[in-house]
Amino acid sequence: MARAFLIVMDSVGCGGAPDAADFGDAGANTLGHIAQVCAAGGAEEGRSGPLRLPVLDGLGLGAAIRLASGLAAPGLGATPQGRWGAATEVSRGKDTPSGHWELAGVPVPWDWTLFPDTRPAFPPGLSAAIAAAAGTAGILGDCHASGTRIIEDLGAAHLRSGWPICYTSADSVVQIAAHEGAFGLDRLIALCETLAPRLHAMRVGRVIARPFTGTPGAFRRTANRRDFAMAVPGETLLDVAAGAGRMVHAVGKIGDIFSGRGVGRLWKGADDAALFEHLLALGETAEDGSLTFANFVEFDTLYGHRRDVAGYARALEWFDARAGVLLARLKPGDLAIFTADHGNDPTWKGTEHTRERVPVLCAGTGTGEIGLCAFADVGASVAAHLGLLIPGPGRSFL
Length: 398
Ligand SMILES: O=P(O)(O)O[C@H]1O[C@H](CO)[C@@H](O)[C@H]1O
Ligand SMILES: [Mn+2]
Ligand SMILES: [Mn+2]
Hints:
This protein starts with a strand and ends in a 13-residue tail after the last helix. The strands form two sheets. An eight-stranded mixed sheet has the order 10-9-11-1-12-13-2-14, sandwiched between helices. The relative contact order is 0.23. It has 13 helices and 14 strands. α1 crosses α12, α10 runs parallel beside α12 and α11 packs antiparallel against α12. It has 398 residues and is of the alpha/beta class. The site of one manganese (II) ion (MN) has 3 residues, from loops.
């Protein structure tokens, strides 16, 4: 029986979203702009020259960027050997849950609650509730911030006061950073779990625990991040596959994004390299008829939000080589789709996600142009490949 591998390269957008201007992102193009900077010699740290992604480009990456945005990305543009296209999101958020849920067949029908970019950012009742749940006299932060910056700025005050560092972004999110040793990892995770129902009721999409270690001047975040996401508002690809008795393997943060629903087995790792080892192993061992759904987050967290073009390019080139190993392991009848959940253009202003279309690159189902499709069509196509049908607006392009 057929197997399916749905692989999300977190934030690897390809521009051209028709509603990008509504998000202040008209012209943003994660892949296109990285390729341009690389070709101009502007991304030379730990790598060199034009962006080289022979495996993904061979499936149709350059063609997908051109289709999505009209941009001819330097170094990309091989004749596609896979089935390729670009997907457009309809959910009104450019965040990870919106993107993944819609890829799994369920667009988000509501407007998320966003906090204003003011100080304080949170309503007083919420700040008080966080402090009460933490057992502290107050909270630190209470603003929009980049997560690495805010622990540099407030980490020492956190160690002195014991107060949790609370911040948000252009996403519908409350993030709480705390020191693993001084505050306690279990305590931080319990705090986020306690607050999640209240925030979900306000239509805040996620509460994220952001543990860190180290000393002033040398704080660093750990891999023990935990996301508490709202429940998906509909039956997803994962639900349908699990309901049909299929094994669903969730690699990386997929389990968190779907609140564990429909997940048969979780595969976690300290970094994307470890997650890719799980994916390669699943290429050998995943059951007939199974779904493997993987997220690779470092493009987004380590490079997109940090506006690090060379780092992003390095990560893409590393990933491309690993993708080649995976493709060589696939068996006849397998489908692998490489796609993304939103953009995070490292050449763009600020430190936030960018509203973009995403590439859809399929291996194992021949050659041809899919054209422009919807995010939900990805989930519908994976389902169709597995002999399943998901509800919702998605239509299979296979
Ligand atoms: O700056 P850091 O903490 O990485 O936060 C980023 O990660 C969050 C979740 O993906 C987003 O809301 C974005 O702000
Ligand atoms: Mn994401
Ligand atoms: Mn992000």
